[in-house]
Every structure is written in structure tokens, then in C-alpha cells.
Backbone:
């Protein structure tokens, strides 16, 4: 009997457990044995794994997060870790590995395939929805709906107090959560990393809205957005093992500028990890399930080095290497639609 490993790496997101459940259920039907690798690549470096049988995945479909745990460990940070990872792959006796991750985790998978561990298939995840090879990543829909609900809530308090409220949402390189939650939540201004913030334009838009009698406004800003004349706002300079800084704080900087320039009382609400938690929506449960089943089919057909992806309404497979080459940023046609409702 062949052994399949599965790991989840990078930031967690709703939909990971449906994928794990689907991989285990389909793999058992195909007579594979399944091993869960704990905490992303860290689990392979430390040989930390658990057998996954049908009972281990029973009841996990509606649960957020990942029963396997996750980490942002990069085995390419030092050579010793890479050697340990390769040794443990053999020691655990894996014949194939399902890697569930975003650009960083799948980027490691693409390198490992070239470095002597070819039997890998990928499953794309991220609330940021910024992987170009798939139309949607699971996790995004849940995060989007959470952000939309928060914006609805912010509306009622902003209106009662006659305030501007800036809602800072996640989105490191791409403003998908900002643009879609902003459209769905009826935001008056939406700011995304793809378009540098013109603070004069933002204030003019808000003032115009107030001049037609409105006494409150909602501004949605993605954490990765930056002023035209400034750098991205960071929470700390330290880099993680994939070279990323910790974002956060653009909402506060923006609120201060808006209040200073318009004279309207302005507050900030940073949604943060609230967006990554909670039970996956039906869309994310179904997408995760479809991707998990197809990942096992790729292994069965020995289509290694491939990543399952959503293309229109079909699940297809693409090369992992190609999938991590470019990020998917917000479509400017969608931004133009959002702009119709600014102010
Ligand atoms: O990659 C998804 C993401 O949610 C980004 O939007 C955000 O910048 C980052 O993860 C936050 O990561 P952490 O959980 O390490 O704070």
C-alpha cells in the first residue's frame, strides 16, 4: 500500500479542513495510507506526523483553521533543515505529498520538485485570493463575507455618531478582500495595494458625499495599500523566513490624515485575523472538497508537479512552478465598477 502525506503551510484559512477530509476520504477509497504532517514544512523537518484515518477527519468539515497546524517555516532558510526534510520524507516512507499552501508554501514545493522530491501535488489556499493560476482560492469567500458583515456593522455605528470609519482589511499584495467586501458592503472609498493612495482625492470624495447631506462615510483600505508619496506602513521591520514584513497600520495613518484634512471625526477598525478565522462558507467547503479529491486523483495518475485549480466551473491542473510565478492582482475593470459608488 502506498503512503500519501499531507501538510498545510503559511497563514491558515477557512477551508483547509474540508481539503484534509477530502484527501483522506478519497485516498482511503483508493487504498492509500494517509499521514498528516504537522505544522507545514516544520513537521517534515522535525518528523512530526500523525496517521490520518476516517475517524481522524470525522466532523472537521465545518471547522475553521487546520487540524494539522501550520507555520511559516521555510526549509530553504538553512541547508541543515533541507537535508532533514529530505531524510524524514524517506523515513516516514512517503510515496507522495499533498502540499496545501499559498505562494510561499507552494514556492518551496516547486523548488523541492527540482531538488529531488518530485512526487508532490499542490492545492492552492489563501484568503488573499492572489494566486494567478486559479480563479479563486478557498478561504477568500469566507474572509470576504466576514469583512462584509463587519462593514455592515460599522455602517450603523458610523451613521449614529456622524463619523468616518476606516476599516483596514487584509491583503498583502492584492486588494481582493478590500475591493469585493467594499463593493458588497457599500463602502464610500476603497483603497487597494495596486493603486497608490491619493489623499487629496480621498478627502475630496468624502467632502463631496457630506455636501449632499451625508454625515458619515466608510473607507475600506487593504493593509498593503500605501500613500502615493510614501512607503507601505509596517507593524515591524523584522522579516519572516520568506522575507515578508508584518503589515498593518495604514488604517490609522489614513484616519489621521482624513480627520486632519476634512475636520470630520474619524475612527479606525482593524479587522485583522478575525478575517482568517471561523467556519468556512458553503462555497469554500465545496471548493476545498473538490480540490482535495482531485489532488488524490493527480497522485493516482502520477501527475506530479501539478497543482489543482479552479478554472471557470471546472477543476483543472496546472504546473506548480507556473502557478507561483506571478500574483493575481485586482482586475481594473472591477475597480472601475467599485468607483461608480465612491462618494
Ligand atoms: O497571507 C494571508 C495573510 O492573511 C495576509 O493577508 C497577511 O498579511 C498575513 O497573512 C498575516 O500573517 P500572520 O498571520 O503571520 O500575521
Residues:
Amino acid at each position: 500500500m502506498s503512503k500519501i502525506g499531507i501538510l498545510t503551510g503559511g497563514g491558515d484559512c477557512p477551508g483547509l479542513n474540508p481539503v484534509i477530509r477530502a484527501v483522506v476520504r478519497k485516498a482511503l477509497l483508493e487504498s492509500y495510507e494517509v499521514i498528516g504532517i504537522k505544522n507545514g514544512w516544520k513537521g517534515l523537518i522535525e518528523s512530526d506526523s500523525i496517521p490520518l484515518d476516517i475517524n481522524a477527519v470525522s466532523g472537521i468539515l465545518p471547522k475553521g483553521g487546520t487540524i494539522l497546524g501550520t507555520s511559516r517555516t521555510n526549509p530553504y532558510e538553512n541547508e541543515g533543515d533541507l537535508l532533514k526534510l529530505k531524510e524524514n520524507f524517506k523515513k516516514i516512507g512517503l510515496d507522495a505529498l499533498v502540499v496545501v499552501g499559498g505562494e510561499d508554501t507552494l514556492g518551496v514545493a516547486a523548488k523541492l520538485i527540482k531538488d529531488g522530491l518530485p512526487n508532490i501535488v499542490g492545492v492552492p489556499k489563501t484568503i488573499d485570493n492572489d494566486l494567478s493560476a486559479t480563479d479563486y482560492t478557498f478561504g477568500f469567500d469566507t474572509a470576504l463575507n466576514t469583512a462584509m458583515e463587519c462593514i455592515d456593522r460599522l455602517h450603523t455605528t458610523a451613521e449614529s455618531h456622524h463619523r468616518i470609519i476606516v476599516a483596514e482589511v487584509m491583503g498583502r499584495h492584492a486588494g481582493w478582500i478590500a475591493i469585493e467586501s467594499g463593493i458588497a458592503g457599500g463602502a464610500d472609498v476603497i483603497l487597494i495595494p495596486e493603486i497608490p493612495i491619493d489623499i487629496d482625492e480621498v478627502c475630496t470624495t468624502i467632502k463631496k458625499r457630506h455636501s449632499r447631506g451625508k454625515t458619515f462615510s466608510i473607507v475600506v483600505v487593504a493593509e498593503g495599500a500605501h500613500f502615493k508619496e510614501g512607503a507601505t506602513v509596517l507593524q515591524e521591520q523584522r522579516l519572516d523566513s520568506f522575507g515578508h514584513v508584518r503589515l498593518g497600520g495604514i488604517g490609522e495613518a489614513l484616519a489621521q490624515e482624513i480627520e486632519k484634512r476634512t475636520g470630520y471625526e474619524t475612527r479606525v477598525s482593524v479587522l485583522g485575523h478575525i478575517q482568517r478565522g471561523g467556519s468556512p462558507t458553503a462555497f469554500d467547503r465545496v471548493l476545498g472538497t473538490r480540490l482535495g479529491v482531485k489532488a488524490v486523483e493527480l497522485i493516482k495518475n502520477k501527475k506530479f508537479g501539478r497543482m489543482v485549480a479552479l478554472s471557470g466551473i471546472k477543476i483543472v491542473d496546472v504546473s506548480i512552478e507556473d502557478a507561483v510565478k506571478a500574483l493575481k492582482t485586482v482586475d481594473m475593470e472591477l475597480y472601475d465598477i467599485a468607483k461608480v459608488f465612491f462618494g
Q: What stands out?
A: The chain has eleven helices and 13 strands. The radius of gyration is 22 Å. The pocket of 6-O-phosphono-beta-D-fructofuranose is lined by residues 11, 102, 126-128, 170-172, 223, 247, 276 (CB under 6 Å).
